[in-house]
Structures are given as C-alpha cells and as structure tokens.
Amino acid sequence: MLSIYSTYSREQRPFKSIEPGRVRMYVCGVTVYDYCHIGHGRTFVAFDVVRRWLEASGYQVTFVRNITDVDDKIIRRAAERGITTDALTAEFAKAMQEDMIALGCLAPTFEPRATEYIPQMLGLIEKLEEKGYAYHAADGDVDYSVRGFKNYGHLSGKSIDDLQSGARVQVGQGKRDPLDFVLWKSAKPGEPQWTSKWGCGRPGWHIECSAMAMNLLGETIDIHGGGPDLIFPHHENEIAQSEAATGKTFANYWMHSGPLRVRAADGTEEKMSKSLGNFWTIRDALKETNEAYGDGFGAEVLRFFLLRSQYRSPITFSSGLIEEAHKGLVRLYTALKGRKGDGQPIDWNEPYAARFREAMDDDFNTAQAVAVLFELATEINRTGSEELVRQLLGLGHILNILTNDPEKFLQGGVQDAGEEARIEALIAERAAAKKAKNFARADEIRKGLLAEGVELQDGPGGTTWRRI
C-alpha cells in the first residue's frame, strides 16, 4: 500500500485520496524570468515520477503546475532588456516547457498562468478581508495579518516570534506587523496592473497558487508539492490564506523534494549560486551530457542521475556523478542489447516487480527501485531470460527510462553516418586481420578505436561497439 511522507505532519502515512481512484495534485512551477536550473529539474522530475507511479497504481491524476508570470524579478528583467513583461515571460515559459519535455516530464493537465486568474485572486482577497484576516494598509497594499492565523509556522516548524518576512516580500511602512505579507500590491508607474476595489495594482506572489489550486482542484486537494525553498514563506503563506478563507484543510499531503548542492573543484559541497560561478541551467547540463554521451541521450542520463536518489534526499550535482549515472545506464542497456522481451505486460507477482512496487509504495523510493533494475540486469546477463527483459523494460518505462534503442545508446548516439561507417569498416578490417592471423593489426585497430572512446565487444553474433 502506498505511503507518503508529509512535511506538514512530519510523518509517513498510508495514502488515501479524497475521491477513490482520483488524485488532485498541485506542484508550484517557476517564475519565468530566466532559464530553469538543474534544481528545478530535480523537483519536476521527482513529481513527474510521483504522478507516473500514481497512474501506474490505477489513479486518475489531475496534475497542475502553474507559471508565475507577474513578479518583481520579471518586471526588473524586462526593464533591463527593454522588452515587455509579456514578451519576457512568453520566451522563458516556452524555454521551461522545452526543458521539462527534454527531461522526460509529462505535460501537466493544467498549466495556469497567474495573470489569467486575477479575478479569482481578487475574490479570495476580498473573502479574507471580510473575515478579518486581510486589511487595506496605509501605503495602498492589501496585507495578510499573520498573527491572526493560529497555526502559522506549523509547516516550517518555525516559531512565529522568530520568523522573518519572506525574501520576496519587502516590508512596507503600511504593515501593522513586519511578518504580515502582501496579497495585493498597489500600482507603481510602468508596472503591469489591474483594477480592484482597493485601487489599481497586482497580486502578491503567495495568493496566486491558492487561487489557482482552489479554482482548478477544489478547496481541499490531495497533494501539494514543490522544492524545499518553498516551505517558507510560500507554502506557509498558502496554508494561512487558503485555510483562513475556507475553514478547510488546504492539502492533505505536503511533499517537498530535497536540496540540491553542487560539488566544487576542491571536493566541498556548496549551494548552487550565480555568484559562486557554479550555476547550472538545465540547458547547460543537457549540452554537456549530449556532448559526452551522444546527442539526444544526455537527457536520459540526467534523468537517471536524478532518479538514483529518493526525492526527499539531498543530492549533489557534479560531472563525476553524472558520469556514474551514465555507467549505470550502460549496465542496464547492455543487458537489453539484442533482446526484446516476451511482449507480455508487467507481472506484479513476479519477485522483481513486487520488490519494485514495494520500493515505490515506500514514499516513491526510486533509489531502491533502481537497485531492483540492476539486479534484473545481472540476472538477464546470466540467464538471457526474455521474461526478465520484459520486466526490466516495463519497470524502466514506468520511470520513463530505457526507452532508447540499446545499441544506439551504447554507441553514444552516433548520428554521423560517415563516422558510423568508418567504425564498421575498421571492425570488418579487424575481423579480416584476425582471420588472416594478423593479430598485431587486429589489436592495433582495437586499441586505436579504444583511444577514440570506442570499445569493441566480441560475442557469438560477431563484434559490436559502444562509446565509453
């Protein structure tokens, strides 16, 4: 039975959906003012796997991932580039969608943009004002009174007296308490703005997700997810405003991916930051992995790297660890090379499949699930069982890996027909040299190709090759 760890309750407990057979799931998306970084990739691959496993378990999943397209950073970046905020957000929303597809993530059921839900946000703010949780401040903003919500700080485990206002919320002179956060910002010249009963303005960051989630999924949802940096203040504030407005639990399970750090040249681990020069966009990572492991295969290597850790675990990003992930995929693809399986569906009573299910039901433990795949590969290499090949392929496909042609993957995704023909010609020349007992030439060809990163593998069916 599936069990999930909830950040809110700080315990792992059996999963029970609000409606039998259906899961309503909301994952906070990105603020589209720049390219996504590998930390975004870690979070979205994690929740893509959550969604895929829920669907494999028989649930119908409604998956919402929002786009924040109005924000201080967006306004500043657009001004720096001399373009409109609409042009900027269109550019980077498209780039984000391309990156998610490249990493093998399913498109969300709904992908709402904040600017499309202004009326719903205004309605929610008005309800909070009516209930005494929001007030129109002297500076024109509408703010949320944090101390009026008795459970504030429960999600993050912070004492309300120790809290600081969120990084995206500038403390204004109109606030009654420095902890209060803005729901509606009064208009400034040249900024995007909408009309409201409190005057022209734009929404604060936190109100967006509450309004979109409740509009698309209902006042109580099954799962709310996001990166670890969103626990406070964003998700804390979402709970406060949503539950104050409805009097209902906002989300039954709060899920957060673990932190991602970058390994420095001296071996230490540090937070990814542009100021430290260790900032990796997903596009940077894809470019490097495609160059290293074959054009079109870098994304699977990156995805597999991310899957080798359970989603809540800290993860370190480095070229060396990516190389280890590639070696792991090589091991799996080597077991599949030349084999297609018996064409039957996954048999969940089969021991390996049962252990895979047990791992995934244990809070989506992909690290243990991948370990089962490696055991399958070892047994396939020993027995050549097509039944086990089918299991390996089927279980891999649930994680959206092992979907490429094994031989092409092992060859590094060679696209250049001339290069492939040259290697095949050298293999043919080597076979002829061996037949003529010219072993020195045969060995020279093997060593020459190895120096180029091409390893020859002799077997009963002849000689094959792969990139190393």
What is this structure's SSE topology?
Layout: E1 3-6, E2 11-14, E3 22-27, H1 38-56, E4 60-65, H2 72-81, H3 85-102, H4 118-130, E5 134-136, E6 142-144, E7 181-186, E8 201-203, H5 205-217, E9 221-226, H6 231-246, E10 251-256, E11 260-263, E12 269-271, H7 282-293, H8 298-307, E13 315-317, H9 319-336, H10 351-361, H11 366-383, H12 386-398, H13 406-410, H14 417-435, H15 439-451, E14 454-459, E15 462-467
Parallel strand pairs: 3-4, 3-9, 9-10, 11-13
Antiparallel strand pairs: 1-2, 5-6, 6-7, 7-8, 11-12, 14-15
What can you see in these coordinates?
The structure is a single chain. This protein has 468 residues and is of the alpha/beta class. It has three domains: 3-256, HUPs (Rossmann fold), CATH 3.40.50.620; 261-409, Anticodon-binding domain of a subclass of class I aminoacyl-tRNA synthetases (Four Helix Bundle (Hemerythrin (Met), subunit A)), CATH 1.20.120; 414-467, no CATH class. It is 44% helix and 15% strand. It contains 15 helices and 15 strands. A four-stranded parallel β-sheet has the order 4-3-9-10, with helices on both faces. The chain has a four-stranded antiparallel β-sheet with strand order 5-6-7-8. Strand 11 and strand 12 form a beta hairpin. The longest helix has 19 residues, at 38-56. The chain starts with a strand and ends with a strand. One of its GO terms (cellular component) is cytosol. Its main location: cytoplasm. This is Cysteine--tRNA ligase. Zn(2+) binds at residues 28, 209, 234, 238. It comes from Sutterella seckii.
